[in-house]
Specification:
The protein is an alpha/beta fold. About 45% of the residues lie in helices and about 15% in strands. It has 19 helices and 17 strands. Helix 4 packs across helix 5, helix 8 runs parallel beside helix 10 and helix 13 packs across helix 15. The radius of gyration is 23 Å and the shape is globular. Bound molecules: nicotinamide-adenine-dinucleotide. The site of nicotinamide-adenine-dinucleotide has 28 residues, from strand 7 and helix 8.
Length: about 550
């Protein structure tokens, strides 16, 4: 195991996770300090990175380092139970919160885009997106098809960095995925990495393979090289019966992300370079047709949802007025989980030893024997997920469950059943930690989509609860001006101090998710609050509980 460089495990954990984010097996462009998500960075520049590392190594157990958009700006005396690092990334005053202003300030060396887990040092590679996608499709299965996708066909498009997780996530749920991808190299890459089972010669044979597999109850994913703006209207016109339709082309970016119909990749590159306005116009017109076909499938009875890529918004700009006929994935499938404080709980073995993750997998499986999707995920993750950088695991756990897992992890460290402490963290896409009206807080029951007090309260509570490091960011996932979100990490080092911190942070952090949704009027969240004794002063039923 790498020798410890810092004065305490909290600082050491932050240092190792920062370095892990930039590990060549983990980061997309480590030479530019870019971790993932377009330009999401871990540190402002090489000098700032070196200064963060130096400062963490020297940082005492009663000090806190402040990081301003990837640059270490101060060390202050706090106290041992306080976080060792506090991070603010990409925040702008609301009237200035657009990409153009951000890019100017970034060019002047004053800020950095932190995305979500890039700038808060808890990215763990593609496992994160695979599990999130698996979780979404299991929620679809649970809510619409009695718990399984066996015999169901999911039609989607986009087999890129994130979208490439879709076929495996569908087959992990027992279903059939029919995936339209315009770039043959992307489809081949998913095939080579085992995320996609096969690539069909053409649309006809792909559809036939998918329908046959569904009829036989086989889990199978089939890629078809085609433009979604052509393929989806064609499939709709033929009356092909599919059960679920979604999309993960990079529709959020009409110039670089979406290929207009009628152009091969070379022609698209030429048009983009020489006539960008015409390109955007054609991309939006194609997205309008693509989205219109999705609405057609909806009218025919399929479950259709937007998968966080803003296809609906761009299609509307392209002239299709009814684009928002189908919901985003959070209101459709994830919000009931958020009401239970359920969200992406992840942990990292600081030892670098894969056996430590195997021990934690067993501990989680033992703790929640009745959670069938969780059991299936742990099994499949063990078999099919290759670690990138430090061994890590992710699964969705709710209020109460996260604290239980944290306590068990601390016991593993204390008893020497793992070789070094474990860091527990999460994505900012979580129940109580994000305001993002086009994604996590779309269509809140009380209309509070754009209220950003909640992620700030979440971050402050995690500081008060003694997390190891806490971050507040702007613009992750959906871009500048569109989101405010927070992240928090806590370290299981086997001490009594860690027992108390883990219990506070891992109870309070998902507790803010229950609080946020109870406040917005969701009965599921109000019930969890009442049953579990979460004290919400304006909701008397929860006060009455012990
Ligand atoms: P990416 O750019 O790596 O991949 C996009 C893929 O779409 C590419 O392979 C591209 O060739 C393909 N494509 C483009 N136009 C097409 C067309 N007309 N027909 C068929 N294929 C086409 O992007 P990514 O990282 O996979 O992300 C995809 C989208 O999903 C993004 O908009 C991203 O913001 C969104 N996303 C949402 C979530 C979420 O939480 N819901 C998570 C991850 C990504």
């Amino acid at each position: 195991m790498t020798p410890m460089q810092c004065r305490g495990w909290l600082q050491e954990a932050a240092l190792r996770c920062l370095r892990n984010n930039l590990h060549p097996d983990v980061a997309e462009r480590p030479q530019d300090l870019v971790v993932y998500g377009g330009s999401g960075k871990a540190a402002r520049d090489p000098q700032a990175l070196a200064a963060i590392e130096r400062t963490l190594i020297a940082l005492r157990d009663d000090e806190t380092l402040l990081v301003q958009s990837g640059k270490p700006v101060g060390v202050f005396r706090t106290f041992p139970q306080a976080p060792r690092v506090l991070i603010a990334n990409s925040l702008l005053v609301p009237d200035w919160a657009d990409w153009e202003t951000f890019w100017e300030l970034e060019a002047a060396g004053l800020t950095m885009y932190g995305q979500m887990t890039a700038g808060s040092w808890i990215y763990i590679g593609t496992q994160g997106i695979l599990q999130g996608t698996f979780q979404t499709f299991s929620a679809v299965a649970e809510q619409r098809f009695g718990g399984s996708l066996v015999g169901k066909v999911v039609l989607t498009a986009g087999l890129g960095g994130m979208g490439g997780a879709q076929p495996l996530a569908v087959t992990m749920n027992g279903g059939v995925a029919l995936c339209i991808e315009v770039d043959p190299a992307r489809a081949e890459r998913r095939l080579a990495t085992g995320y996609l089972d096969e690539v069909a010669h053409d649309l006809d044979s792909g559809v036939q393979r998918a329908l046959d597999a569904a009829r036989d109850g086989l889990a199978l994913s089939v890629g078809v090289v085609a433009n979604a703006a052509d393929a989806l209207p064609e499939l709709l016109a033929r009356g092909v019966a599919v059960d679920v339709v979604t999309d993960q082309t990079s529709a959020h970016d009409p110039l670089h992300g979406y290929i207009p119909a009628g152009l091969d990749l070379g022609a698209a590159t030429e048009l983009r370079r020489h006539k960008p306005q015409e390109y955007v116009q054609r991309a939006r017109a194609s997205m309008a047709r693509h989205c219109e076909a999705m609405v057609g499938f909806l009218r025919n009875g399929a479950d259709v949802f937007d998968y966080g890529n803003n296809l609906r918004g761009e299609a509307q700009l392209g002239g299709f007025d009814d684009a928002f006929a189908y919901p985003g994935f959070v209101p459709a499938y994830i919000r009931p989980l958020f009401c239970e404080g359920k969200g992406p709980f992840r942990w990292v073995a600081l030892s670098g030893d894969a056996a430590d993750i195997a021990a934690t997998d067993r501990a989680v499986a033992e703790a929640f024997p009745d959670d069938e999707p969780l059991q299936r995920w742990l099994q499949l993750a063990d078999e099919r997920v290759a670690f990138q950088g430090l061994p890590a695991r992710i699964c969705w756990l709710g209020y109460g469950e996260r604290a239980e897992a944290g306590a068990r992890f601390n016991d593993l460290v204390r008893d020497g059943r793992v070789r070094a402490p474990l860091v527990i963290g999460r994505d900012h896409l979580d129940a109580g930690s994000v305001a993002s009206p086009f994604r996590e807080t779309e269509a809140m029951a009380d209309g509070s989509d754009a209220i950003a007090d909640w992620p700030i309260l979440n971050a402050m509570l995690n500081v008060a609860s003694g997390a190891a490091w806490v971050a507040v960011h702007h613009g992750g996932g959906v871009g500048m001006g569109k989101s405010i979100h927070a992240g928090a990490q806590v370290v299981a080092d086997g001490t009594d101090d860690a027992t108390a911190r883990l219990d506070r942070v891992l109870t309070n952090d998902p507790g803010t998710g229950v609080m946020r949704h109870a406040d917005a009027g969701y009965d599921g969240a109000r019930k969890v609050a009442a049953d579990r004794g979460i004290h919400l002063p304006m909701l008397p039923s929860s006060e009455a509980q012990p």
